[in-house]
Specification:
By secondary structure, the chain is α+β, with helices and mostly antiparallel strands. It is 27% helix and 28% strand. It contains eight helices and 17 strands. The protein is globular, with a radius of gyration of 19 Å.
């Protein structure tokens, strides 16, 4: 998906033209992956653009920075307001928001602490991450030969830039094998997540999703889907999922800010259920998109309207 440039980027406290938002090639982040980021969506509604789960995303950004020992030179409220102002400045009706905190340059070496911490916020127009038809038709995925990290190697709960090398291997392998996306297993051989998505399995009306101990990122959209499902009357269980369970599931779906709520049509060439979007997945989608697009009441308080800030 080609990136469409916007007019401005909030770059360490001030707005600069898109082309002027640059860092030095000797910055620590370039050499060692020392960054923390978030992915956030703003949706078009009748009341103007509204950011989805803004507070939760910014809170996770700061928690990831804490894990990475990276002190953010701004408060959560300042980042929240900067996100809203960047959307206003660029005149988006809807967009993808990318806050990034990174280490600049001071010295060369693995120890990052002498390198200054910088921050930026970019907003870009963005469509469906896994393809325009994926929301209805689903996607074909394969189980990757690449595993997620062990819990004492790198912290899966942190959305840290360098860790996404693992995700790159997962998704490149998937594309090489003709799949849209890959599913990674954890070090014990249980299902973890996609390269950038959480996963849900449905069987006999019960919804299952891997636990935190399976080296998953605690997704914001994952939490949203669990809340919606429980309010629709479904039981949601966090428990380990074996690879073969994927094959015999009634339904599977991904969640994520980029992927939103996307059905999985097949795994390793094996058709899931009837090979079409299942009824429970569709029910969760209807609530999710109804709320994010302003067609249903925002009964959970998930939307922050850009113009009002409420």
């Amino acid at each position: 998906m080609a990136m469409q440039e916007s007019d401005y980027i909030w770059f360490h406290g001030e707005f600069v033209p898109w082309a002027d938002a640059q860092i030095h090639i000797m910055s620590h982040v370039v050499h060692y992956g020392s960054s923390v980021f978030e992915g956030i969506r703003a949706y078009a509604t009748d009341d103007g653009p509204a950011v989805f789960c803004l507070d939760a995303h910014v809170k996770r950004l700061f928690r990831s920075c804490k894990i990475a020992r990276m002190p953010v030179p701004y408060t959560e409220d300042e980042i929240n307001e900067a996100i809203l102002e960047t959307i206003r400045k660029n005149g988006h009706d809807s967009c993808y928001v990318r806050p990034l905190v990174w280490r600049g340059y001071d010295s060369l070496g693995v120890n990052p602490r002498t390198c200054p911490v910088k921050a930026m916020i970019a907003t870009i127009p963005w469509g469906r991450y896994l393809g325009p038809e994926a929301i209805e038709q689903g996607v074909d995925v394969g189980v990757s030969s690449w595993r997620r990290m062990a819990p004492d190697t790198t912290p899966a709960m942190g959305k840290i830039g360098g860790q996404y090398v693992n995700s790159q291997f997962v998704v490149m392998e998937a594309h090489d094998h003709g799949y849209t996306e890959g599913i990674a297993l954890d070090i014990y051989g249980y299902v973890s997540e996609g390269s950038g998505e959480n996963l849900f399995l449905i069987q006999d009306g019960v919804i299952y999703t891997p636990p935190v101990s399976s080296s998953i990122l605690i997704g914001i959209t994952r939490s949203v889907a669990m809340t919606i499902a429980e309010d629709l009357g479904y039981e949601v269980r966090e428990q380990r999922i074996t690879r073969e369970w994927l094959y015999i599931a009634d339904e599977l779906f991904f969640t994520g800010t980029a992927a939103e709520v996307t059905p999985i049509r097949s795994v390793d060439g094996i058709e899931i259920g009837a090979g079409t979007r299942g009824s429970i997945t569709e029910a969760i989608q209807d609530e999710f998109f109804g709320i994010t697009e302003g067609r249903l009441p925002d009964r959970y308080g998930w939307l922050t309207h850009v113009e009002s800030g409420d």
